[in-house]
Amino acid sequence: MSTKTVLVVDDSRIMRNIVKNTFTSMNIPCEFVEAGNGKEALLQLEKQTVHLVLLDWNMPELSGLEFLKKIRAMDKYKALPVIMVTSEAARYNVIEALKNGATDYIIKPVNEKNFREKLSKITI
Amino acid sequence: MFESIKKFFMNVMTSGRSDETADEARLDSIVRYILLNSLIFIGGAFLFGFAFQNLASGEMAQSLVDFGMGMMAVLAFFVLRTNVPFTASGLLTVVPFMILCAFFAWSGGAQGSGVLWSYSFPMMAIFLLGMRNGTVLSLLLFVIFSLAVFIPGFSARTYPLLFAFRASGVYILVLACTLVYEQTKVAKDRWVSKLTRQLKAERDEIAAMKDNLNVGLFLINTAYEIQPQYSHALEKILDETDLQGHNFLDLLANSIQQKERETLMDYFTMVFNRSYDAQMLEDINPLHQFTYLSVSGGEQKTLRCTFAPITRDSGEVFVLGTVSDQTFEVALQKQLSEEEGKRNEEMRALFEVIHVEPRVLHDFIEDAEYEFDRINAILKDNDRSAQSVMVDIYQSVHAIKSNAVILGLDSFSTKLHALEDEIKTLREKADISFEEVLHITVELDKLMRIKDSFKDLIDKILSFNVGENRMKEEQVLVQTLERVIEKASSDLGKKAALTVKIDPLAIEHGPRRVIKEILMQLVRNAVYHGIEYPEGRLSVGKNEEGKIRLNIELQGAKIVISLTDDGRGLDFKAIRAKAVEMRLIAASGELEDKNALTQILFMPGFSTATEADMYAGRGIGLNLVRERIKEVRGSIKLQTEEGKGTLFKIYIPVEISISSGSQTA
Amino acid sequence: MEKYIQPFVDVCQNVFRDFIGSELITERPYFVDKNDPHDWDVSAVIGLTGEARGAVVISMKETLALKLTGKLTGSTHTSLDDEVVDAIGEIINIIAGNAKRGLEESFRLVISLPTIIRGKGHTIMWPNEQARIICIPFKIFDNETFCLSVAIDASSGA
After folding, report:
1. pLDDT value at position B616?
2. What is the ipTM of this complex?
């Protein structure tokens, strides 16, 4: 399996590190690209090929939802797997995300088991 | 007009039975009625026709017979309309018809066509009268028929032999076929009715299950309309009746916000389209648990819904929904977690209590009871104003609380602190209502109950401890003071140690409680204000750890208590600044002399502590000390040297001592 | 606990005002030890059960009981005879009845019929285990006092 690029979008550096570490502990060979908000995330998408996006919801500048809407409107990112990482377990929010094109969701705190489950459902 | 003609026609043909409920068996009999009525009309018409024809051609007897039979048919028609069993009318019609067929066979008719009539008989007879009676009459006719065609003298016409064989043979054929047909029909009917019975039974079973479920089960279509078949429980759970055709989302109007309703519609779209697997859909189900209030009012309940897509044979997609009332379970769960929370809190409090040395705790309890009695005495004193009562009660509660804090009884001290706050608010008010005083009284009672529980615990433990290891008075005192120092040091990040030299006799004859209170206060102050931080101490060449020395001895009739610390001495600058802030002295000019400033230290409300938190006290500290000393007719002196330390010397006369353990009324 | 006590206090005030025609002065509540001897001459015990368990006791001295009877019946008595006890019982019944209405409606509480105990130094059997009783003194007729004592255990944590 070739190395995949994962874009981690979260305004908290600590959270980004946690996500990265959890991923690494699963022994999936991947490279990480980070963004602190939706705008930065868009820029990162332009710069390289990204295979998976782990997207936080509440961010300044461009929120997770807005970012998602934007990229789903663009043809080249229509099929890009996006997993929403959220502390908001409110079901209404999750449905809104899915409706706007999120591929799946994980509720914080993230752990290996969660990730494995969700990743097994999508092919990168 | 056309309708009424049609209705009249139907009524006549079915002998008035077309209005009755049409099920399989019924339909069968209606067909027979129509058949028989048709036969009556057609046959009757023929018979009357022949009758008139014969009349016209002079055949009177013939005509009479025809007419007679025609009348029988008419009779049959009317009998058919009554409740007389079908068979009666059937016979009334079929028998004459049989006779007619027999007659035509016998008479030959035009060119021998008379025999042709008989071929219609087996069908009529068997259809109208059933297999048994129909077959009997058909065979009877066959006999007459055979006689007529085979025996030359019997009938009016002579039939050729070959013709006779063929004629009777075909008759048997017709009879046989009719029998086969009727038999198959009967078998088919039996099978259909068995099937119907089975279906009915299943339907009844399902209906029974459906109506006895205490879960609401229903189907909605893509327009969110509830379909007719739903379980009975649904109405009860949703507090609505006649739900079919209702929009499910409208029923939730009182229970969800507009925005939530829109998201719910998105969710349903996902369900209809099977956009995600069942598990995921359930995970994001917004109605997994929610508070429901019917649009027509009623009680609020907690409901749980699940949804699953269903495709019917017609290809139409529905969503199968279930609703169950979880109010009870949810309330139970809440109750359980509340109780668990309470239990945890109790456990924590218990741990705190257990960590205190029993004798020390015992003293604490005694002191608390002493303060409580003091409070009660104040309450009883009707000459005091409510406000002054509050001021005094505050002191006592504060005293208990300080002790609790030192012993690490956090749970208890938090509650005491809360009461302290309430009293503090009240003591500022000029007008205190009865309710407010009652409230304080009740809260005190609650706290005393907690104290009682400590006491029970201690009694249990101490009962194991009788005789052995009973600590001496001075050991208890030392341990208490050591705890004070420990707590204060760790809170502040300082280091301090206590060394003692105590004459047991001095304590024995002294007011133990007062001494303890005073020393606790002074020792705390020593750590807070006297002893410097470790770095500070090192930088002036002192040991990191501060030294606090306690000496208690008897000098004649006086108990002499000396408490020294090797800290930085009294900070007169800070004292002066605080005094100015509190407007106790003028801001201007002369440095007040140290004696005057020292006096100020002992005034109520004076504290150089910047924040009134649990540990640094609220400015009662030294004032309390002075009050207590006054109570036992003692005196206090202090000496201090900047950078070197402070010495407190307390003199307590022995005769006027309040023995430890007594309680003021 | 206060939510149970306050209604009794209010009812006492109202009943004495409307029925006896005298104003009560409510004084400061204080604590009494269950086992301490008291010097009341007559007590009326009203039991409480339901979401809280306990008792409310109204105690007074003979002099006040006689005065109250005098006010009610017009007749003078010189000792705590049956008529006096009846009169006191009457007053207590009204208090209990009025308190019943308020308490039973607002809380799941059942109030029993009062029992009267007389005799100097009589003992009151409190149904609870705790040691302290809250006593609310009321002053009436300028120099007479009676006491409303309360000991209630809330089983659901009031």
Report:
1. 45
2. 0.81
Residue B556, domain extent: 474-653
Does B302 lie in the same domain as B430?
no
Output the DSSP codes for B74-135: HHHHHHHHSSS-HHHHHHHHHHHHHHHHHHHHHH--GGGGGGGGGGGHHHHHHHHHHHHHHH
Domain that holds residue A61: 4-121
- CATH value at residue A110: 3.40.50.2300
Q: Flag whether residue B444 sits within 8 Å of chain C, measured between CB atoms.
A: yes
| pLDDT of amino acid C155 | 63
In tens, the pLDDT along B480-489 reads: 888 888 888 8
The reply to whether B43 and B164 lie within a common domain is yes
**Residue in chain C lying closest to B439 (CA):** C2
Residue C48 phi, psi (nearest 5): -125, 135
Residue B607 pLDDT greater than 80, yes or no? no
Nearest partner of B408 among B459, B474, B484, judged by Cα: B484
Provide the domain count of chain B: 4
Percentage of chain B exceeding pLDDT 70: 91
Q: What is the 3-state secondary structure (H, E, C) of B430-442?
A: CCCCHHHHHHHHH
Residue numbers of the domain that contains C100? 2-154
Closest CA to B582 of B613, B611, B603, B596: B603
**DSSP string for B187-209:** HHHHHHHHHHHHHHHHHHHHHHH
**For position B437, which CATH number holds?**
1.20.120.160
Q: Which residue among C2, C9, C26 sits closest to B442, beta carbon to beta carbon?
A: C2
Question: What Cα–Cα distance (Å) separates residue B336 from each residue in B288, B329, B330?
Answer: 21, 10, 10
Q: What is the DSSP letter of B286?
A: T
Distance CA A73, CA B128 (A): 77
| pLDDT for B345 | 82
Give dist(CA B529, CA B574) in Å, integer.
11
Tell me which chain C residues have a C-beta less than 8 angstroms from the C-beta of B345: none
HSE, CB side, 13 Å, CA atoms: give it for residue B28. 15
What is the torsional sign of CA B392, B395, B400, B404? positive
Partnered with residue B220 across adjacent β-strands are: B226, B319
Strand partners for C30? C135
Q: How deeply is B124 buried, as exposed, middle or buried, from its count of CB atoms within 10 A (0-12, 13-18, 19+)? A: buried
Cβ of B284 and A95 within 8 Å?
Answer: yes
For residue B309, the distance in angstroms to the closest alpha carbon of chain A comes to 17
Report which of residues B307 and B298 the model is more confident about. B307
Chains that touch C (3 or more CB pairs under 8 A): B
Residues in chain B within 8 Å Cβ distance of A94: 283-284
- pLDDT: is B475 or B168 the higher one? B168
List pLDDT tens digits, range B637-657: 888 888 889 999 999 988 644
**Average confidence (pLDDT) over C53-67:** 89
Q: What is the pTM assigned to this prediction?
A: 0.47
**Alpha-carbon B132 to chain mean position:** 68
Residues of B in contact with A104 (CB under 8 A): 280
Q: Examine the pLDDT at B305 and tell me if it is beyond 90.
A: yes
Q: For residues B162 and B150, what is the distance between their CA atoms, to the nearest angstrom? A: 10
Contact C9 B389 (CB under 8 A): no
Check: CB of residue B608 under 8 Å from CB of residue B529.
yes
**Higher-confidence position of A14 and A46:** A46
Burial C49-81 (b: 16+ CB within 10 A, else e): eeebbbbbbbbbbbebbbbbbeebeeeebeebe
Q: What is the CATH number of the domain that holds C119?
A: 3.40.1550.10
Q: What are phi and psi of B244, to 5 degrees?
A: -65, 140
How would you classify residue B661: left for phi > 0, otherwise alpha for psi between -120 and 50, otherwise beta? left
**Residue C47 CA from chain centroid, whole number:** 11
Domain count, chain C: 1
Number of residues in chain C: 158
CB contact under 8 A, C31 and B445: yes
